[in-house]
Amino acid sequence: MTTSNPRDPDSGRAGIRSEEAALSTAIETDDATWFDEFTIELRLLGVPGSDIGDALASAREFLADAGTSAEACFGSPRRYAAELGLETIPLRRVNRGGLLSGLGVLGLFGFLLSALPLVHGEAVELDLVTLVVVVAVVIVVVIVPTLLKVLARLRLRPWMVVVAALLGLATSLTLGRWGNGAALLTVPALPIVIVSALLVLVPAIWSQARHSLHDDAIVDPGGSPEVRPSISTRLFLGAITWGMVILSIVVWLFALFGEPLER
Predict the structure, then answer these.
(1) Element (DSSP H or E) covering residue 185
(2) What whole-number distance in Å separates Cα of residue 200 and Cα of residue 102?
(3) CB of 246 within 8 A of CB of 239?
(4) Range picked from 1-5, 111-115, 180-184 for highest mean pLDDT
């Protein structure tokens, strides 16, 4: 009868190699996350893509010589990106893009208010709750540039999803309970529709005309941008540019055909 020796050298070496491989994989994963966050921080600072490529290449080269993790070598991605002091795109230009995105959201909200009344030939009646929501949306539009930075740095956690769902449910119940008050203001639907269409279409057309898929791409030193970006990249950027237009079309489809389907 043969028994295994718990002190078998081969078994011990295999276990050590397995632990080393697991540790190496964990470090590589952490480093990949660090570099992703570092790239985001440089983008949020408005650093041009070519300079981001240089910074990433330099950091990877230094990390390879250091033989440690990126966190231990450079510290926080946000702090390290700020310490580099790289040339940045003017903040006004960065904020302008965020503000244009916010205008699209405001236009979509205008469609939500005015699409059904226009189809039914009615005016838009604004009660206290609706006016409060309108003011809240305008405030969100104004702070969009700052809000985008917060969301870009946010690490999504399960509890955040739960809190967001509970807040959404509470808001819906509150609006449903208090949203049937007397109308404080009555506005014709057509002017709201026209203004909302401009708010949705103008930012999308401006973004499409002023930018291309090759604008400010992150390029390695001595490299060149991709001749043709991947399909996933084109779809993602297209959704970002025309997202509010697509959602507005959905709102109008529901306004035009939703009620007949319910019948």
Answers:
(1) strand 185-187
(2) 10
(3) yes
(4) 111-115
Buried b (16+ CB within 10 A) or exposed e, 251-263: bbeebeeeeeeee
255 Cβ contact list (under 8 Å, min separation 6): 115, 116, 118, 119
> What pLDDT was estimated at residue 117?
92
Sign of CA dihedral 171, 168, 172, 170: negative
* Cα 189 to Cα 116: distance, rounded to the nearest angstrom: 9
Query: What is the rounded CA–CA span in Å between residue 37 and residue 27?
Result: 15
Overall average pLDDT of the 168-195 stretch: 76
Query: How many CB atoms are closer than 10 A to CB 112?
Result: 17
Ramachandran area for residue 46 (φ above 0: left; ψ -120 to 50: alpha; else beta): left
b/e per residue 196-221 (b: at least 16 CB within 10 A): beebbbebbeebeeeeeeeebbbbee
pLDDT at 195: 95
**pLDDT confidence tier of residue 111, bands split at 50, 70 and 90:** very high
Ordered by start, the domain boundaries in the chain are: 9-84, 91-262
Whole-model pTM? 0.57
